[in-house]
């Protein structure tokens, strides 16, 4: 009888952990490192560098942009479209001078970022944030075909929040299973 009680308790713990992991995975956005390995620095190809990077991704509400840069050498400054176009940093929405800087994309629409030091050399980024209501929190990009049954099968970017949450959730799920196996 004691073994059945231990098994029942472990099964309940496993179920709670599984439900928590599923809810947590759905509610957290992805973290994108701006420029990937290149980082947030003066681009050799001008503004095209970060424009091309942004075009490779679909951003959703809740996602986070991480700007990796050396403090004192660059800035990550959120501005409006007019200030983005003219590289004007006089009226920033948010100005981060210490790297790495993180910005949460909390509403749909366009976001504009510049380096106040190197904007005229093309260190600027514009991203469009879509609704998080589509399957897996992503909308198909213009001109792409709708998602196939079963959703997007591509993995999240390495080091993203989704990747870390999935790893932590796997650990949380496997520990009760391991304990149950030992108690059996």
Automatic annotation (TrEMBL):
InterPro entries: Cupredoxin, Phytocyanin-like, Phytocyanin_dom
Chloroplast keyword on record: no
Residues of the Phytocyanin domain: 30-131
Low complexity bias: start-end ranges: 130-153
Alphabetically ordered keywords of this record: Glycoprotein, Membrane, Metal-binding, Signal, Transmembrane, Transmembrane helix
Cellular component terms per the entry's GO annotation: plasma membrane
Pfam family, one: Cu_bind_like
Disordered: annotated span: 130-160
Domain of life: Eukaryota
Transmembrane segments: 165-183
Signal peptide: 1-29
GO molecular function list: electron transfer activity; metal ion binding
Name of protein: Early nodulin-like protein 1
Biological source species: Nicotiana attenuata (Coyote tobacco)
Upper taxonomic lineage: Eukaryota, Viridiplantae, Streptophyta, Embryophyta, Tracheophyta
